[in-house]
Amino acid sequence: MSTVTKADPAGPAGSARQLSERRPLGDVSFQAVALAAGLLVLVILALIAISTSQQASSWFSTEGLKIFTKAWNPTANQFGALAFIYGTAVTAAIALIIAVPVSVGIALLLTEVVPYRWSRPIVYVIDLLAVVPSVVWGLWGILVFAPWIQQHVYNHVGSGVNGLPVLGSLFGPPVSGASFFTAGIILAFMITPIVTSLSREVIATVPVIDKEGAYALGATRWEMIRGAVWPHSQGGVVGAVLLGLGRAMGETIAVALVIGSSATITSHLLAPGYSMPSVIANEFGEASGVFRAALMGMGVLLFAFTIIINVIARAVVERSARRHRGA
Amino acid sequence: MAASAGPQIADLREPPSWRRTKSRIATVLMVAAFVLTIIPLGFVLYTVIAKGASIISWQFLTGSIPPNVVPANVGGMGPAIVGTLEITALATVLAVPLGVLGAIYLNEYGGNRPLAKVIGFMSDVMTGVPSIVMGLFIFSIWVLHFGYSGLAGAFALGCLMLPIVIRSTYEMLRLVPDPLREASYALGASKARVTVTVVLPAAIGGIVSGALLAVARAAGETAPLLFTILTVTTVNRNVFSGPNTSLPSQIFANASSPYVGAQARGWGAALTLIAIAFILMIVARLVTARFARYLR
């Protein structure tokens, strides 16, 4: 029996100490297998970066910095991705402008207004939005929603603001059912569940003492939310919004069906456009050579953007969670 | 409220009206936000059920996929249903055991070590990787060398499921109380044995329901399958080789078709897909209710 007691390699989940130095072979190999499974995450992420950039290298090398121009014409060998980056940014921005107030509103409703037994069914309903597959949103979007909104909303708005200085160039004609704005609305429906559930988790960590303190000072519910809940959960909500942004940027199929598939940069939000994921989905099957490399390269850009946004978002959420647990 | 007991009593009545009104407006806006999300949800579900239910029959569920031009009452989605079931099942077999093992590493072995923290963090980040990127990834490392197959599609779906399974399993393992582990160590059991025979059974309800939700999400994914299985219209029972098809890919193909028959079959497929996802979600809730021993 050895006199040196080694700390159990266990970690905090179990605090047992080994009495003998030797661990059974099965035990060691089980730990190795579990570690390998954990490392698989890092391996996959590294492989994604390496293999896709390798496939895209001919785009980066032949076009150089021209990949950030707006000249996109595969038949003439022009592969500038700016129009797609623009479309991705615009649709994601529209989605956030619609989804964030709604999501934060529902999160506040769930945590501060309704009693617990009502909040569960509301959560179920919001989660149902996440169960509807992306392609079903797309099918509904292009066959039902886009024609409806064009006829009942876009046409009136388009003729109403035509000629006005700013609104005219944003919402004026040409109008089309399949457009940046329709894609943004569909994206807003799709990211609402995740932004809601993350904001709700953050808002639920606000200490009851703070809230009761605000009420004791005579605050109304809204004043309590602004004075006690908001300062506490601001950081976490920003993180939730960033995660929603990452989702909105990477969403493919629904956007591919409703965005209108036209590689243009225009201020007209009701006109057809294109985005990075949707051009990959629509064109990759028929592409070859530099064209295929260009689409693969847009996948690399998309991967890089979403990884950066997700890292920032997770870091923000974790930091605000840690600060409040410590406080 | 009886206010006038004496002259010195503090005024405990509600605050002045403008502040109260502002608070009311805020509450109304919150309710409006909820209503605003129910409307599209109800609209989508209503349309899918109304348009899908009329076409769904046994013949639709088993029939072969006809060309787009034929009318709605001919043919069905049989090959797509077979493809979705076999590809999703294979992806589950690949991703769930690995995800559970990864979570076991994070909670039982990793603890506060830097490596475990990095893996946990990157696994959360991986849930944000767009599904189309997973498709491109499997295309470059597998399809280019071995060709299109259901297996390639299962790899892509598995990559999407892995971080979700890790996260949900990790949360469940954390709920298992330490005294349970300590009691087993006291009996002389090794760590692997404790994990497999004590910790996992204690958390199994939550693990299964988390895995089912991941499966439900994967079953509805289209983007990772586009360049890994291709979209064919014939049935392919061999999941390991040859192009395949799936319900989501078929809906995507039919949605952009101008033919009414193809669109009608698209609605039928959408209803089938949503039904599969709902069934998985309901089973997950039942499993949670039945087997969950430790809840948050």
How does the SSE layout of this entry go?
The complex is a heterodimer of chains A (327) and B (296).
Chain A (H helix, E strand, L loop, with lengths): L24 H39 L8 E2 L4 E2 L2 H32 L2 H16 L2 H28 L3 H7 L8 H25 L3 H9 L4 H30 L2 H6 L17 H8 L5 H38 L1
Antiparallel strand pairs in A: 1-2
Helix pairs in contact in A: 1-11, 2-6, 2-8, 3-6, 4-6, 6-8, 7-8, 8-11, 10-11
Chain B lengths: L16 H37 L4 H5 L15 H33 L3 H13 L4 H16 L3 H26 L2 H9 L4 H29 L3 H4 L20 H9 L4 H32 L5
Question: Can you tell me about this structure?
Answer:
The complex is a heterodimer of chains A (327) and B (296). Chain A is mainly alpha-helical and 327 residues long. Chain A has helices at 25-63, 82-113, 116-131, 134-161, 165-171, 180-204, 208-216, 221-250, 253-258, 276-283, 289-326, and strands at residues 72-73, 78-79. Chain A has a two-stranded antiparallel sheet. In chain A, a hairpin with a 4-residue loop joins strand 1 (72-73) and strand 2. In chain A, helix 2 (82-113) runs parallel beside helix 6 (180-204) and helix 10 packs antiparallel against helix 11 (289-326). Helices cover 72% and strands 0% of the residues of chain B. Chain B has helices spanning 17-53, 58-62, 78-110, 114-126, 131-146, 150-175, 178-186, 191-219, 223-226, 247-255, 260-291. At the A-B interface, helix 1, helix 2, helix 3, helix 4 and helix 8 of A face helix 1, helix 3, helix 4, helix 5 and helix 6 of B.
